[in-house]
């Protein structure tokens, strides 16, 4: 009786689907090398007649990639969010034996050799996108939605996460909620980036009939910016200072916390703080910050996977949006 895929699956201790995809050289399948080797060995041992020895996947054509970070190397040290994304890219690249060139502050003039793909991290103007596209057809944007321009994009879900934060405060009977959000421009100054957290916050508060523009303060995503902005809010609002603040990233939130502590405003007894990104910084302060956990490493690894898929075969652009999770710590109180 001829050996079937079911026989191989049983002997190898894996699913029938896994056997089928491995024996058909499906490189998109996430399975370890040891498992692949075991399946092929079992197939040969059982004299599976359709067995073919694996050929090198077409993705091996990709050898060198560049990571183009919009931050300078020094700035990246101050914002662990973008560093974590880059580390995710490098980790996955190492798994696929890809050589990686790092380019900081979008300085693509530093590229002195041909590369097979580019992964960008951060925000880029239309002119910068066009310039990057001249380097390679294999281009993936992380944390910048360039899907409409025809490029793969890896993004974070802002709408649901911000709505969850607002709803959490609401459930704690904290309906006067302030916001510290960020404003940025691309390195060439040609594009001003609106903070999607502001838009999501405005929509969520409006749904509760509680949006107040005077409780929303713009900053620059830095620790010092958060500190100065919260000091301004304390001075401007006085006794009307909200009982809760959502802050758009961890550096600004730590600065805001410092300003509250200097003003002898108790956190979370008088003001609760909820941050965004959940980098290690959120746990380095006292009280530790509640924060929206963003899958930064997964954003990086997903970008590499998209790059390899496109190198393997042409396809339409993909827009991948990753979910988030609320992490509760001591800067917020629960009823």
UniProtKB/TrEMBL annotation:
It comes from Loigolactobacillus coryniformis subsp. torquens DSM 20004 = KCTC 3535. GO terms for molecular function: DNA-binding transcription factor activity; transcription cis-regulatory region binding. The keyword Transcription regulation applies. InterPro entries: HTH_LacI, LacI/GalR-like_sensor, Lambda_DNA-bd_dom_sf, Peripla_BP_I. Keywords: DNA-binding, Transcription, Transcription regulation. Pfam families: LacI, Peripla_BP_3. This is LacI family transcriptional regulator. The keyword Transcription regulation applies.
């Amino acid at each position: 009786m001829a050996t079937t895929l079911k026989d191989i699956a049983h002997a190898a201790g894996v699913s029938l689907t896994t056997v089928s995809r491995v024996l058909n050289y499906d490189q998109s399948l996430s399975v370890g090398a040891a498992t692949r080797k075991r399946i092929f060995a079992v197939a040969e041992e059982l004299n599976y007649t359709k067995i073919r020895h694996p050929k090198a996947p077409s993705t091996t054509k990709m050898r060198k990639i560049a990571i183009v970070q919009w931050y300078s190397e020094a700035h990246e040290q101050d914002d662990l969010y973008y560093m974590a994304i880059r580390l995710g890219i490098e980790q996955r690249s190492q798994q696929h034996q890809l050589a990686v060139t790092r380019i900081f502050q979008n300085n693509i003039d530093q590229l002195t050799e041909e590369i097979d793909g580019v992964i960008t991290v951060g925000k880029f103007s239309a002119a910068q996108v066009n310039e990057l596209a001249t380097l390679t057809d294999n281009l993936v944007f992380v944390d910048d939605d360039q899907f409409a321009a025809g490029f793969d994009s890896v993004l974070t879900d802002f709408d649901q996460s911000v709505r969850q934060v607002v709803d959490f405060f609401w459930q704690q009977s904290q309906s006067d909620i302030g916001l510290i959000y960020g404003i940025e421009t691309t390195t060439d100054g040609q594009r001003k980036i609106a903070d999607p957290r502001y838009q999501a916050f405005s929509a969520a508060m409006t749904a509760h009939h509680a949006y107040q523009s005077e409780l929303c303060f713009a900053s620059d995503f830095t620790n010092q910016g958060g500190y100065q902005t919260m000091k301004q809010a304390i001075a401007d609002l006085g006794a009307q200072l909200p009982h809760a603040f959502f802050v758009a990233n961890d550096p600004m939130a730590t600065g805001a916390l410092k300003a509250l502590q200097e003003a002898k405003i108790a956190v979370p007894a008088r003001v609760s703080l909820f941050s965004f990104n959940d980098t290690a910084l959120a746990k380095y302060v006292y009280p530790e910050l509640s924060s929206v956990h963003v899958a930064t490493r997964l954003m990086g690894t997903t970008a590499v996977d998209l790059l390899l898929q496109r190198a393997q075969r042409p396809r339409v652009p993909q827009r991948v949006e990753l979910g988030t999770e609320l992490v509760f710590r001591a800067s917020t109180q629960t009823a």
